[in-house]
Amino acid sequence: MPPAAKRVPWRWLVAGRASRRLVLVVVFVALLLDNMLLTVVVPIVPTFLYTTEYEGTNSSVAPAQTEPAPPALKAPPFSSMFSYFDNSTVTVSGSMSAMDLANGTESSHLPQPLASSPPLPSSCPEGKEFLAKENIRVGLLFASKALVQLVINPSVGLLTNRIGYHIPMFIGFIIMFLSTVMFAFSGTYTLLFIARALQGIGSSFSSVAGLGMLASVYTDDFERGNAMGIALGGLALGVLIGAPFGSVMYAFVGKSSPFLVLAFLALLDGALQLCILQPSKISPESTKGTPVFTLLRDPYILVAAGALCFSNMGVAMLEPTLPIWMMQTMCSPKWQLGMAFLPASISYLIGTNLFGILANKMGRWLCSLIGMAVVGISLLCVPLAKNIYGLIGPNSGLGFAIGMVDSSMMPIMGYLVDLRHTSVYGNVYAIADVAFCMGFAIGPSTGGVIVRAIGFPWLMIIIGVINIAYAPLCWYLRNPPAKEEKIAILSQECPMQTKSYTTQKTLRDFPLTDDSDVEAENAE
Asked: Residue span of the signal peptide, if any (predicted)?
C-alpha cells in the first residue's frame, strides 16, 4: 500500500477531531442511548414485577389449595347408552364421572354444552392491593437514577473544569454499558434498583460533559441554540424509541432482548468516541469557572432551572403511574403500556427541532412560558382518557410543550453564564442537569405515594396546576441584566456600546471580586 493511502485514514481522523459537527454527532448518540435506557424500562418493570412476584407467588400457592378431582371413567369419544327410564338409546360424548353414571345425569351434558364451558379469562390484572403498593416501589426504582445523578452532577461539573470534557464522556460510556448489561440479567427488584442507580452515574458524566462540550465548541448564541436543539433531538429520539421498543420486545421476545440491543449500540458509541474524541487527553479550561454556589445564587439561573424541573416533573410522574393506571382502568395488554408514550415522544422530537430555531426569533422566554402553560393543560386532560386512543391528544401536547421548554432553557443557561458570569459551562450545565434530575427524582418518588393516597387523577391536577402557576416567572428571563464587571468587559470588546454603559460604570461603589480581576486580565 502506498504511503499516501496509509495517510488517508489518519487525515480523516485529524479532520474529524477538528469538526464541530462530529462532536455534535457524538453528543447526540450519547444522549440517545442514555434516554433509550431511561425509558425502555418504563413498560417492562411494572409488568415484570407483577409477573414474577404476584403471579409467581399465587401460582405456587394455588396447587396446594386445590383438591384432586374424582377419577373419571374412560369412555370413547362417542358411545351409546340404553336408558331404562324411557326405553331409549342416548349417544354421549367425552368422559363422565362415576357420580354422573351412578345418578343417571349423563343427559345433562347434552342440552347445556355452553353452560359447562369455563368463562373467558379477563385481561384485567388481579391483585389491586399489590398494584397500589407497586406504584410506590416502581416510583422509587425510577427515581433512584435521578437521585444518584443529582448527587454526582456537581462533582462532574468541577471535574470537567479541571480535566476537560473528553475523559468524563468516555467514563459515562463505560458506566452506561455496565448498567445496560446488568439490566439484561437482573431478575429481582434489588438488582434492578442497583442497575438503575448505576445508570444515574453514567448519565451524569455523559450529559454534563456533552452539553458543556457543545457550549464550548459553539460560541455564537444562535449556533449554540441550533446545536442544543439537535442534541436534545437525540434525547427526544431516545425517549421516542425507548418505551415502544421495550414494550414490543418484552412482549414478543423477552426481557433481556431490548437491553442486549442497547448494550451493542453502546459499544458502537464507545468506538465513535475513541475515533472522534481523545479520551486520554487532559485539557483543563484556561479560565477559572464561576463556582456552583455563586451560580445558584443567581435568580435568573434559578428561574431557568425551575422551568426545566417542573416541566419534566410531569412526564416523570407519568412514567411509573400511567402504565399501572392503564392496567387497572383500561385492562391494557403489555405492548400498549409503552405505546401510550409514543405520541409524547414524537411531538417532543418535533418540538425540540422546531423551536431550537424558532425560539431565538420569538424569544426564548416566551417560548418557555407558553410551553409550561401547555404542559399544565395537557396533564389536566390525561385522566379524562377512557382508552389508549384518548391519551394521544394529551400526551402529544405534553411532549410538544416540554420540547419547547427544553430547547429554550438549555441555550438560555449558556447565555446567562456568558452575560453574567465567566464563560465556562461545566458548572451551569451541571445545574441544568440537576434541575432535570430533580424533576425525575421528586416526580416518581412522590407520584406513587400521591396516587395511593388520593388517586391518579388528583396527581395530574396537582402537577398541572403547578406548571401553569410557574409559567409567568419565565417573563423575568425576557431581558436579564448583565453584571457590572461583565458590562465593562463587553464595553471593551464592543466600543460602539461604551456610551450606553458609562453611567452604570461611574455609579459602581463596591470593589470587584477576585474572579472579576481574572476576567478583566483575560479580556485584555
From this structure: none
- Helices of type H across 41-127: 44-49, 56-65, 98-103
Cβ-contact 293, 42 below 8 angstroms: no
Cell 447565555 belongs to residue: 415
Residues in Cβ contact with 32 at an 8 Å cutoff, skipping those fewer than 6 apart? 234, 235, 237, 238
Distance CA 145, CA 183 (A): 13
Distance CA 382, CA 359 (A): 27
DSSP 361-412: HH-HHHHHHHHHHHHHHHHHHGGG-SSGGGGHHHHHHHHHHHHHHHHHHHHH
- Cα torsion through 270, 276, 278, 279, rounded to 10: -20
User: pLDDT (tens digit, 9 = 90+) per residue, 293-309?
Assistant: 888 888 999 999 999 99
User: Which residues contact residue 422 at a Cβ distance below 8 angstroms, ignoring those fewer than 6 apart?
Assistant: 287, 288, 289, 290, 515, 518, 519
pLDDT (tens digit, 9 = 90+) per residue, 359-369?
878 888 999 99
- Distance CA(462)–CA(109), nearest Å, equals 58
Arithmetic mean of pLDDT, 450-467? 92
| Extended strands (E) in 151-205 | none
The pLDDT of residue 465 is: 96
Q: Report yes or no: 138 and 324 within 8 Å, Cβ to Cβ.
A: yes
Considering the entire predicted model, what is its pTM?
A: 0.62
Helix (H, G, I), strand (E, B) or coil at 145: helix
Instruction: Let me know how many helices (H) and strands (E) the chain has, helices first.
Output: 21, 4
The Cα 192–Cα 37 span in angstroms is 13
Point out which residues pair with 382 in neighbouring strands: none
